[in-house]
User: Which sequence fits this backbone?
């Protein structure tokens, strides 16, 4: 085992111990913050729940639900991929792939693509779940595959971005960035903007590539390494990259959260915020979770901080996802927290189960889908309080 892998293993082990909640009596300040009571001002109803697959606690895999408008797709660490009816939760198909999974599913163009933990990309038919092809990637992936047009784009933890043919998995092009000695366990999900695909890398760079040719369009140093030690110089861009219009939002560990112009890579604004969960956005705000567990909202226009919530310190909150009038995060004990998108105040809380939630929730239309590390998935909806209509007094009308 080389030096880079040994150091990588040390950082991974430290993160796993933190996630497990293993703390000594002398380190009470490192324990997850105790939850305060929430005054439920928003009613949330669980519509259905289902079992997706096997457990993946503390593995930091990239398995989270995906939707295409007609179905919800989910994958378990044990190699089971399923499609569900979003209204009823009825399982439409279930495919056992016979290998452990680390990323996916990516959905689009009638395909569902997942990646195994030993670096194999697998394409399934979205309608039936039938396997179409398998391709060796020569590297583990911890990022959701991107399906766009005729291509499936996959990022691996060795800092490579590859485009595969959607038809047979043949490699169309590949780019590679330098890999630092020490990195976090994780990768940024590539996103498409027009004819470009944008990826974040462990060297702190955001890179735009032409989807058709693989030519690099621009590079932007989003999270410059700082400090003397390898630990101080960690600057990975992990988690989610968000796109609104022609603006791209991304965050780096021990670095910056920034808005970047998708056409040129020019940084429009940036703020010193350390995050390995990434960024989500709506039309007014961008949201992130800091490395310590604070949930932060910034103005999308200029990056001004609008609110910050520290109720979930050291509780490993997921990426905040806009939903209804809230942003939603899961935590290491299986709780789902609903925070007001106006001021960050907790307005509701419920629990999917006892297992950790490390994948960001999914929002499709007016529904929320959450997958836990134990392989359970739940669907939720806001219950609107509407005034009851009074029946007309027929007798009075007749008189």
Assistant:
């Amino acid at each position: 085992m080389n030096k880079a892998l040994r150091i990588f293993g040390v950082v991974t082990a430290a993160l796993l111990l933190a996630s497990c909640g293993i703390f000594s009596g002398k380190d009470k300040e490192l324990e997850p913050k105790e939850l305060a009571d929430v005054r439920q001002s928003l009613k949330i109803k669980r519509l259905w729940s289902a079992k997706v697959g096997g457990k993946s606690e503390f593995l930091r895999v990239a398995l989270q639900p995906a939707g295409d408008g007609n179905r919800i797709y989910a994958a378990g660490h044990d190699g089971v991929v399923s499609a569900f009816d979003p209204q009823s939760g009825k399982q439409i198909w279930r495919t056992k792939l016979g290998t452990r999974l680390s990323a996916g599913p990516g959905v689009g163009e009638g395909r569902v693509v997942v990646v195994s933990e030993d670096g194999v990309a697998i394409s399934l038919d979205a309608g039936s779940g039938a396997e179409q092809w398998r391709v060796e990637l020569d590297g583990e992936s911890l990022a959701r595959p991107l399906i766009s047009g005729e291509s499936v784009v996959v990022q691996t933890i060795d800092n490579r971005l590859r485009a595969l043919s959607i038809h047979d998995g043949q490699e169309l092009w590949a780019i590679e960035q330098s890999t630092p000695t020490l990195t976090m366990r994780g990768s940024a999900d590539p996103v498409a903007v027009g004819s470009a695909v944008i990826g974040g890398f462990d060297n702190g760079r955001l890179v735009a590539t032409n989807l058709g040719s693989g030519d690099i369009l621009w590079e932007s140093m989003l999270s410059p390494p700082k400090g003397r030690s390898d630990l101080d110089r960690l600057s990975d861009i992990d988690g989610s990259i968000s796109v609104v219009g022609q603006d791209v939002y991304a965050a780096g560990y021990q670095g910056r959260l920034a808005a970047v112009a998708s056409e040129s890579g020019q940084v429009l604004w940036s703020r010193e915020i350390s995050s390995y969960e990434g960024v989500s956005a709506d039309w007014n705000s961008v949201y992130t979770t800091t490395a310590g567990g604070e949930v932060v909202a910034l103005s999308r226009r200029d990056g001004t901080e609008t609110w910050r919530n520290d109720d979930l310190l050291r509780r490993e909150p997921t990426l905040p996802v806009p939903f209804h009038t809230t942003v939603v995060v899961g935590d290491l004990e299986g709780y789902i927290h609903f925070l007001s998108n106006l001021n960050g105040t907790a307005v509701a809380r419920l629990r999917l189960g006892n297992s950790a939630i490390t994948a960001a929730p999914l929002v499709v239309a007016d529904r929320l889908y959450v997958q836990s590390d134990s392989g359970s998935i739940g669907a939720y909806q806001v219950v609107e309080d509407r005034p009851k209509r009074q029946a007309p007094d027929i007798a009075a009308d007749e008189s």
